[in-house]
Amino acid sequence: MTYLIALILSLAVLITGIIKFKVHPFFMLLLAALTYGFAAGMSAQQMVEAINIGFGEILGKIGLIILFGVTIGTILEKSGGALVIANRILQLIGKKSIHLAMMLTGYVLSIPIFADSALMMMNPLNKMLSKKAGVSFAGTTAALAMGLTASHVMVPPTPGPIAAAGILGANLGDVILWGLLISCLALVPCYWYARSVADKLKVSVKVEVPSRPEEQPALWKSLLAILIPLLLILVKSVLEYPAVNPGSGFLVRIFLFLGTPVIALLVGVILSLLLPKKLDEAVFSSSGWVGESLKVAAPIILITGAGGIFGKMLQESGLAESVTAGFKGAKWGIFVPFLLAACLKTTQGSSTVALVTTASICAPLMSFLGLDSTFMQTMTVLAIGAGSSVASHVNDSFFWVLTQLTGMNVKQGYQVQTAGTFVFGVSAMLLIYIVTQILA
Questions:
Q1: Which of 148, 265, 337, 422 has CA atoms 20 to 30 A from the CA of 351?
Q2: TM segments (predicted)?
Q3: Is the pLDDT of residue 331 over 70?
């Protein structure tokens, strides 16, 4: 009971600090970890060791992966490669299916690029196409926002899912495969919501001409930096399945090396350098594209490291042993990470913080929740991702980016973004539960 009280107290400190006092999540996660350690009666030496080991272990696993993923996204955005991909998707699907086009475009772009940035980039196109097609701007915005949200919380190399997978020790290739499948299926009811509910909202549209680079990169170059790393990671995952038994030949060793997430993402960074017109100071300098990616990645890496400290503190305190073994083997234990992530997302706003914090709390409890198999580790990452989307509202920066860019008021924002993320998160969790019932 002492450990559970300590955990509740530390979460209260975390949420209060972020929401009320606007303290950076890194410092609040660190303070929450220390609060838990003191409340749980840990010694000073135990807490210091948990801080050092927890921070180092998790960043050793995924720090560079997050940095490389952010770098790929930044170069895609700045070079115009992301816009090339968006325009091609729109051409393939057609302006008559603008809702589907926006949803799929948002889904693809949010894998390498942060959802906020992708929304800002796509908003002018969304306005223009919805105006030309004569459809509701609110409906197409809902479709775009749900597409952005789906891959943002479920599909690596987006930093949040990568961090959760690293903390829980889940196979990244499995997370990509199942994340793609479940998030796409969960978008089906979101598409219905955008067409049937959000479409009825009236939002005025002022058409703007989207900014375009003078010379855009070729489509195939733009896709390389996204698809090649994903394929390398997936090939490695397939080769490592016991039933495959590929042997130990030269090509197998090469693919196992290249498919290691940190190497695969590094390959993606190298391929993304094909996109700029010139490889000069504007790309590589501290104030250029690479410098900007470092500034964007640094807070995420620090938050992830602080989450590692929190998780190690929980592990070293003996919390897992104090949790009843009644969860063990119970398939409904998968709802625990979902509900915890949903509570954290709703109370403090950030999906990344919800993903990292929930994964850190659940890591020492996996066996007691019946989630310690390889397959259930993957499903747990996705359940946390689903929970971290429920529900985006006024304490989420993405909510304000959406309403300010589109001219929606707060009520309309709740109807489009908050309700939409609720539909996605609940749909995804139900799919995850059905899959675990069948396959676990």
A1: 265
A2: 26-44, 64-86, 98-121, 133-155, 175-194, 218-239, 251-275, 296-314, 334-363, 375-394, 414-435
A3: no
Whether the link from the prior residue into 161 is cis, omega within 30° of 0, is: no
Question: 232: buried, middle or exposed (CB in 10 Å: 19+, 13-18, 0-12)?
Answer: buried
9 contacts: CB under 8 Å, gap ≥ 6: 35, 36, 39
pLDDT digits 0-9 by tens, 102-143: 999 999 999 888 888 888 888 878 887 888 778 889 999 999
- Cα dihedral 347, 184, 155, 272 in deg (nearest 10): -130
| DSSP H or E stretch at residue 125 | helix 115-133
**Phi/psi zone of residue 96: left (φ > 0), alpha (ψ -120 to 50 degrees), beta?**
alpha
What gap in Å lies between CA 239 and CA 247, rounded to an integer? Answer: 9
Burial of 46 (0-12, 13-18, 19+ CB in 10 A): middle
* Amino acid residing at 419: A
User: Quick check: 164 pLDDT over 80?
Assistant: yes
Write phi, then psi, for 41 (nearest 5 degrees).
80, 25
Over residues 181-190, the pLDDT tens digits come to 999 999 999 9
Determine the Cα–Cα distance for residues 357 and 299; give it in Å rounded to an integer: 15
- Which of 385, 378, 435 has its CA nearest to residue 170? 378
H-helix segments, 240-329: 250-258, 261-272, 281-284, 289-317, 319-322
Alpha helices in 20-114 (DSSP H): 25-39, 44-79, 81-93, 98-109
CA distance 7 to 12: 9
Helical packing angle, 335-348 and 374-387, nearest 10°: 30
